[in-house]
Amino acid sequence: MSTDSPNRQDPEETARRSIGARRNPASQEAILDAAEAVLEEGGIAGFSIEAVARRARAGKPTIYRWWPHRTALMLDVYKRFKNAKAFPDTGSLRGDLVSFLGDHLLGFWHGSLCGTVYRAVVAEAQTDQEAAKVLNAYHDERMAHSVQIVDRAKSRGEVPQDTDGELIIGLVVSYAWHKLLLGQVEEAMEKVPRVVEVILKGVPGYRG
Amino acid sequence: MSTDSPNRQDPEETARRSIGARRNPASQEAILDAAEAVLEEGGIAGFSIEAVARRARAGKPTIYRWWPHRTALMLDVYKRFKNAKAFPDTGSLRGDLVSFLGDHLLGFWHGSLCGTVYRAVVAEAQTDQEAAKVLNAYHDERMAHSVQIVDRAKSRGEVPQDTDGELIIGLVVSYAWHKLLLGQVEEAMEKVPRVVEVILKGVPGYRG
Amino acid sequence: MSTDSPNRQDPEETARRSIGARRNPASQEAILDAAEAVLEEGGIAGFSIEAVARRARAGKPTIYRWWPHRTALMLDVYKRFKNAKAFPDTGSLRGDLVSFLGDHLLGFWHGSLCGTVYRAVVAEAQTDQEAAKVLNAYHDERMAHSVQIVDRAKSRGEVPQDTDGELIIGLVVSYAWHKLLLGQVEEAMEKVPRVVEVILKGVPGYRG
Amino acid sequence: MSTDSPNRQDPEETARRSIGARRNPASQEAILDAAEAVLEEGGIAGFSIEAVARRARAGKPTIYRWWPHRTALMLDVYKRFKNAKAFPDTGSLRGDLVSFLGDHLLGFWHGSLCGTVYRAVVAEAQTDQEAAKVLNAYHDERMAHSVQIVDRAKSRGEVPQDTDGELIIGLVVSYAWHKLLLGQVEEAMEKVPRVVEVILKGVPGYRG
DNA sequence: GCGTAACCGAGACGGTACGTCGGGTCTTCCG
DNA sequence: CGGAAGACCCGACGTACCGTCTCGGTTACGC
């Protein structure tokens, strides 16, 4: 991903220049690469527009021109990872949810930079009004996409037609968020089947 | 809570002084009051040690002396609200969970400053390693306290003795966090009974 | 000198902005003006980068960008006064030295801000290693310039060719420094002719 | 001098206590020792009341009680060195002045801590009004003492009775100050005889 | 012989200033 | 017109000392 900019740190490299009155894709790539690298090296705390600009050998205004907020930039970094987004149909709701929670959420965040990026975006959204909007929009879009899992279950007849898909997916996503933000992604991955089980069938042995 | 310091903004008020080689409670109160006020007026974005110091008419070093991080200060502000912490025994696990989620978590965060403070703490923990430790410690302590709800249900015979209380409480807390961090506390409050229902009894009509 | 910035204290004045990727002369002028004003009002003790920045409506980093030390800034203030630096040729070594000591050193320092600035620079150089270097460099440069007085005397035939100009000028400068740093510039001015006389002809009536 | 407090850095040493309603000489000694040590280790820049108090294991008020200014403290440190203050009578004014400048001033300042202390005092006097008074008083007292050199020369018949002793001594002291404050004490020591020669007999070969 | 006054250490207090970092804006110059 | 470069103002960061104050304890002196 960032392999196409091997000499970024070389200050003697011939600078990118304007390519006329239009967006220079090389600059955008370099900036995203730099953002990624900065996040990897310095973590969330070390992430700043200044640092990205330095690293990308770009001017700050160039970044601000195309990304209004740090958040927008982070989300773009995040999205570069999120290309294989189709949820595989495992044939059952339980399987789909286990895969969704274990692979698509926790597994995706675990280890890689993605978890860090997403944590940063969420954190930013608490501080900045604009960031919150961006995050909410992204979240809504992903939710709308993810309820397909429940829709598939409906068409299979596993759940009634009036099942509240958002609530179920919401519970799963909530669990993932919670563990991500507490830095407990790894521990959470072991519990995935039990979590899905509780959501689907309730507390085992509950007599209410 | 902060009503006992009515003249804080009066610059002519006789300044607080040292009361010897020990912590001055008046200063600590004033700082917490100021932190609260700053959060109320400026939100998370406007919260800074400088602003708190100015407002409290205190020196920055006095703040840093007693609170190593912004997070520690925020958590102390948060804790001042959290005095009535006993969970009322409603007589049933369902009732207890509804009360816990609806009153103790969402209800507590809703409207008041608490939600803002907690959001800020969570956000800070994403950025700062030390803050994360502080938040995790607090979270663990609250979790340990909250599983009492499930323990009570066990003694009532509502759930088996080997029920994983942490998982159940964890799901409830996760849901609350998620909604808090998305700024959807109010919307979430309506769904409380249905959320509890799903956690206790699973997806209605699920045939797995 | 600072008369061209009459409204500096008006906070409603439109702020200076960047004029591109190069030093903004207006800012530099404003900072020097402010430094001068701060020194005038608060004396050496009141002189701080913070105060200058406040007064100049400039950011501290802008000052630190261009002047690494307080000393460098003070020396620049000092130099703004030192434009008419030619020593008038009075036709005799005695006359030149009297003029040098009385007009160029003591007279220049007397009353005006210059004495204060120079005292500050010297004081700073005692504390700060970097400041000492800056002061020494300036001092060497001035000394090299001032020995011209003796050189002229040599070409006039007043003194032998092997006369140690530095020693003579050094004695004169030493006397001025001493009186400046003791706050006795005014008293010293009366003694100028006698001091020069002793340096040139020795202690009157000495039989050694 | 400071050898009588060998365990100063041992924190387990039993602390000094009050010895009743009077000054504790042990504390005063410890503070002067500490001041000396701090100056030796950190130079002028590292000298602060805090540092001295820490080092002396004394309370800041104890220092402020007995020395109103940093300057007063420094001067006391300085004076501890200045016990052998008698000027040896070398039998001639030239010899006395060479000894005074070379041994009593430059030689005394050279290498040892004294030069540092005196530089600090002079620097402080530029900033602080009170310090200036203290320094002036000390300077006047030393001057009054030093003119004895010229008085002796008068009684020897080397110079006329109306010779301005202060001016001559002043020139010598000025030269020493100048070199001290420029950090050129060592270089200056070589020039001592020539400086005295010029002061006594004027510029060699001058025909005015 | 007992209160009290002054000293001692310790360290917190409100402050000021330090020097640095980053934010977001602006302008110039080059292609 | 895009893009780099970098200066601009601003504000917050966390630290070091400042000089003052109050404390609890200790000792010597005067009543």
What does this structure look like?
The structure is a homotetramer of 208-residue chains. With 208 residues, chain A is mainly α. Chain A has two domains: 1-66, Homeodomain-like (Arc Repressor Mutant, subunit A, Orthogonal Bundle), CATH 1.10.10; 80-201, Tetracycline Repressor, domain 2. Chain A contains eleven helices and no strands. Chain A is elongated and about 65 Å long. The N and C termini of chain A lie far apart (53 Å). Mean pLDDT of chain A is 87; it is low at 1-14. Chains in contact: A-B, C-D. Chains A and B meet through helix 6, helix 7, helix 9 and helix 11 of A and helix 6, helix 7, helix 9 and helix 11 of B. Chain B binds a DNA duplex (31 and 31 nucleotides) through helix 2 and helix 3.
Core attributes:
homotetramer; 208 residues; mainly alpha; Arc Repressor Mutant, subunit A; Tetracycline Repressor, domain 2; 2 domains; 11 helices; disordered N terminus; DNA-binding
Secondary structural class of chain A = mainly alpha
Proportion in β-strands of chain A = under 5%
Shape of chain A: elongated
CATH H-tier superfamily of the largest domain in chain A: Tetracycline Repressor, domain 2
Low-confidence stretches of chain A: 1-14
**Major β-sheet annotation of chain A:** none
CATH topology of the largest domain in chain A: Tetracycline Repressor, domain 2
CATH architecture of the largest domain in chain A: Orthogonal Bundle
Name the quaternary structure.
Answer: homotetramer
Which bin fits the share of residues in helices of chain A? 55-70%
- Cα radius of gyration of chain A in angstroms: 20 Å
> Largest contact between protein chains?
A-B, 51 and 52 residues
CATH class term of the largest domain in chain A: Mainly Alpha
Helix segment count of chain A? 11
Q: How many domains, in number, for the residues of chain A?
A: 2
The run of helices and strands of chain A is: HHHHHHHHHHH
For the record, give the distance between the C-alpha atoms at the N and C termini of chain A, rounded to a whole number. 53 Å
- The average pLDDT of chain A is 87
Number of DSSP-assigned strands of chain A: 0
